[in-house]
Give the backbone structure.
Amino acid sequence: MKENITLDNYEAFYLDYLEGNLSLVEQKAFEVFLAQHPHLAVEGDELPVLIPPVTDENSHASPIDVFALQQSIDLSELNEENVDFYLIAKEEGLLSDSQTKELLTWLVAHPSHQVDAALMQQTRFKNEVLIYPNKNKLVQKDARIIPLWWAGAAALAAGIALLITFGWNTNEGDSIQPNQATIAQKNKTKQQNEQPNQAPPVNQQNGSQQNGAFDHGHTFKNGTTNQVNPYNAPNNTPIILPSNDQQQLAQENKKPVPKANDDGSLPPNIPAPVRVGDIPEEKTSNQDLAVLSTNEMRNPIEPITEVLSNKLNTPIDFRSAKPTADKKGGFFLKIGKLEVSHKGSKR
Amino acid sequence: MNTKEYNNAVNQYADNIYRFVVKHTRNKMLADDIVQETFAKVWEKHESIQADKAKSYLFTTAYHCLVDVMKKENRSATLDGYESASSEVESHLFDVQKVLHEALNTLPEIQKTVVLLRDYEGYHYDEIAEITNLSESQVKVYIFRARQALKSYLKEIELVA
């Protein structure tokens, strides 16, 4: 062991002890010293602030360590032995302006140490830019959490739609019971489709409302009724039409509506209303509408669409119809603003 | 710290963490691994970390990763790829800074750490103490020792030159 451990130099030994830089012999000696001076032992790594007086006779401590542990810096002790400490303190910004001036004055008086001062200034590492090349790998994406059951339910609905398209038996004319979540959307759709220039009513024998050429469902003079009722189901509940058909309907409604004569008869240039059954298929532009009316479709997965609508607070509707002799089948799926429809081929 | 704040921390501090680790290890590939591990650990606990503490948390984590790696690979004596990496890392530095980096590598790891945190990141003694789990007094002593050693190294080089 180079030197004995004393109250004058124990801090330096303490640091080396904590760093693991002491030899086994020194380590043992230091532990003996601590046992003899229990008031010096500290919890954790906190060194005591006690600074033993530094004298030339008994000081074996490194001046740097001793001075570094001082609470305040006093330049009255500045000399050629400890000038490094003050130079470091200056670089670390620990000197006041007056102390810095005092140090510079001392250096002017001791030019041999000016080289040390210049070298000490160069011990600071300059700001150096290093770009990390793989920053993009660290970035986290803000993923939306989609419940698995939602995805499963959507897949199930799509699968059922495909099954229906390829021949799932459905009953025609079943009453439609739209779920509560879609009523508001349907009402909105109905309002959008109501046109200000709808045909004025035409007098009928039974006193029903007058209608124009584009009939929305009423009883004709000859007692027949137009089965076409794209807007009102038997229970007078509005339905949702596919958006492309809504556009077609809107365009039809923009056509000028002829007025009825005073006696209730139609003007001569207006064709009499006809029954759907009288119209050859290829001449009817409303064939698609007739097929896709909701009273001819049913929702085979109503419990699922109801639950989904309620859970997601999004209108979800699904309807399907089997093709018949005079009508095309198909299905209609609506999830929020997404609408998917398919028209099957006739049998 | 939410995802957006975490990503901001990545953009702000990834370069600094990388520089700190590269200066220690002098090996860019190893530094890359340590940086990835650091941010992965911080991401795991990001919800419990305050955004304004992100920098100190990152450096603390990086320092601990660094210590673990250095212990594991026993790199205090030698480094794999040391020679080639050092020229690659410091090729852009001017002479004095190059010599200074050589001097840095002669320091004990703890002195290297405190000096890098002090000079590159501008941390105060108490902040460095928090990162390295030392006392403020110890940090001060280590910095003083490091500065004196660096100055002595530069003086020797000047004498040789």
About this structure: The CA atoms of residues 164 and 320 of chain A lie 7 Å apart. Chain A is about 35% helix and 5% strand.
